[in-house]
């Protein structure tokens, strides 16, 4: 049982695929340290990011807002310090008296966090002390030093790893920043995924993305090349799993583990050859899905899974605020994942939204319901997708092209329209209709004026 205000340790990777873990049943790699965290807590099997790209997703994590509401839809941001909304670090530091530290990868903006040392408290900083720069190899040691500091305040420590993002460098035959991956004979490479082929009725914008990526490839993408890619990706995950283990060991050795909630996730996933795609940005499960494990010493649940719809972008902030006894900002979409010892299934989320911007031009939205996933792309042929994730978890059959699924399709279109209407999400906006979103099968959706700037 932890104290009233527990310590909070948030560990997250970059590109960590939700099913690329041995605790998720994947036999192509071993992740003993992530597995032991899952054995001590709850693993969420339907967890998503808000936008499968590093900078937008990370901005969402620390604000609880959709990246498009923040004006962040790519690597470049127009996030001015004077427009900075309340951030997770600032909320816990200023209202909860937490000692907040951030180590490792930041990748949100170039503002105050990049300065060494604790920031001067203000409404224009992020609220974190920088304990370590971008360095996976030294991050565990920096976290251990942070844990050894004698301070009466509870702590909120973020450990942001770069890996397994190095799959991007590996794919381009570049040196790997945190150590190379040993190659093996071809017959030891993992096999191709069951959903290696493109889905039926694939949107034009995804086909274009695949063609552009493969045209720019250093070497052609044969099946052997794809299998080598998967081998490299899994070895990078094993590398970061070992480093995560060092942090968990340091927590145990500090004597603080019984008073510390540990959360593990990622900023987004990695396609890892599914649908013959790599990296992120698309709204397929491998890309928009993330691992999420919560180990709360006060929660009696151990080694269980929870299939409710959750979002690391929407839910991290209210969850941490709940543990810290801090009131989150009004108007956020997220909810706390803190378990109060009662059945929460009746209040489980029925609809979850995510967004992306493909090829630096085409907006898209995901509407996830308990059984189905709907994806709308702003332009192109076959710009809608509908998948029955119970019958088709690999997202191979696009039901949006079949008349017999028209009612389900229209229901999800209406859910997207209601989301846009109630939150001010100007999806697919057009200069001819300011203050409106454009939803397939619904048309122009007038947005609530008081929600246009959240």
Q: Count the helices. How many?
A: 11
Helix-strand string: EHEHHHEEHEHHHEHEEHEEEEHEE
Helix content: 25-40%
C-alpha geometry: globular
Task: For the largest sheet, list the strands in their spatial order.
Answer: 4-3-5-1-6-7-2-8
Overall pLDDT confidence: 90
CATH class of the largest domain: Alpha Beta
Oligomerization state = single chain
Number of beta-strand segments: 14
Return residue spans where pLDDT drops below 50 for at least 5 consecutive residues: 112-119
What percent of residues are in strands?
A: 15-25%
| Spatial gap, N to C terminus | 37 Å
In short:
With 454 residues, the protein is an alpha/beta fold.
What does this structure look like?
- The chain is of the alpha/beta class.
- The chain has two domains: 7-337, Alkaline Phosphatase, subunit A (3-Layer(aba) Sandwich), CATH 3.40.720; 352-451, 2-Layer Sandwich (Arylsulfatase, C-terminal domain).
- The protein has eleven helices and 14 strands.
- It has helices at residues 32-39, 54-63, 67-70, 88-96, 139-148, 167-171, 204-215, 223-254, 285-288, 312-324, 406-423; strands at 7-13, 42-48, 99-104, 129-132, 155-160, 260-266, 293-295, 304-311, 352-358, 362-368, 372-377, 384-388, 436-439, 443-446.
- The strands form three sheets. Strands 4-3-5-1-6-7-2-8 form an eight-stranded mixed β-sheet, sandwiched between helices. A four-stranded antiparallel β-sheet has the order 9-10-11-12, with helices on both faces. Strands 13-14 form a two-stranded antiparallel ribbon.
- A hairpin with a 3-residue loop joins strand 10 and strand 11 (372-377).
- Helix 5 runs parallel beside helix 8 (223-254).
- The radius of gyration is 21 Å and the shape is globular.
């Amino acid at each position: 049982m932890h104290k009233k205000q527990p310590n909070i340790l948030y560990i997250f990777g970059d590109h960590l695929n939700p099913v690329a873990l041995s605790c998720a049943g994947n036999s192509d790699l071993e992740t003993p340290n992530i597995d032991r965290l899952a054995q001590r807590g709850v693993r969420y099997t339907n967890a998503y990011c808000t936008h499968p790209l590093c900078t937008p997703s990370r901005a969402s994590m620390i604000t609880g807002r959709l990246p498009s509401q923040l004006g962040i839809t790519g690597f470049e941001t127009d996030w001015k310090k004077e427009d900075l909304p309340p951030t997770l670090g600032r909320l816990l530091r200023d209202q909860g008296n937490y000692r907040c530290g951030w180590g490792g990868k930041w990748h949100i903006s170039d503002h105050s966090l990049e300065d060494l040392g604790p920031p001067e408290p203000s409404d224009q900083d992020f609220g974190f002390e920088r304990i370590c720069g971008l360095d996976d190899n030294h991050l565990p040691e920096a976290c251990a030093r942070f844990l050894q500091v004698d301070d009466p305040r509870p702590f909120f420590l973020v450990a942001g790893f770069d890996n397994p993002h190095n799959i991007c460098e590996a794919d381009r035959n570049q040196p790997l920043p945190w150590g190379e991956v040993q190659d093996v004979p071809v017959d030891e490479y993992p096999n191709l995924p069951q959903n290696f082929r493109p889905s039926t009725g694939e949107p034009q914008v995804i086909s274009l993305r695949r063609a552009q990526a493969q045209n720019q490839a250093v070497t052609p993408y044969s099946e052997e090349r794809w299998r080598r890619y998967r081998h490299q990706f899994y070895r990078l995950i094993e590398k970061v799993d070992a480093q995560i283990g060092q942090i968990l060991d340091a927590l145990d050795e500090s004597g603080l583990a019984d008073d510390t909630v540990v959360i593990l996730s990622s900023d987004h996933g990695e396609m890892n050859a599914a649908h013959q795609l790599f990296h992120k940005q698309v709204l397929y499960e491998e890309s928009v899905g993330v691992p999420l494990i919560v180990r709360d010493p006060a929660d009696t649940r151990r080694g269980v899974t929870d299939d409710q719809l959750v979002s690391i972008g929407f839910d991290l902030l209210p969850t941490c605020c709940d543990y810290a006894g801090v009131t989150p900002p009004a108007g956020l979409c997220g909810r706390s994942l803190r378990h109060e010892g009662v059945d929460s299934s009746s209040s489980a989320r029925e609809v979850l939204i995510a967004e992306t911007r493909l090829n630096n031009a085409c907006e898209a939205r995901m509407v996830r319901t308990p059984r189905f996933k709907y994806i709308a792309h702003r332009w192109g042929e076959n710009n809608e997708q509908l998948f029955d994730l119970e019958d088709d978890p690999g997202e191979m059959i696009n039901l949006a092209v079949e008349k017999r699924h028209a009612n389900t399709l229209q229901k999800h279109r209406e859910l997207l329209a209601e989301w846009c209407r109630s939150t001010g999400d100007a999806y697919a906006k057009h200069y001819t209709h300011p203050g409106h979103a454009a939803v397939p099968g619904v048309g122009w959706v007038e947005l609530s004026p008081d929600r246009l700037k959240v």
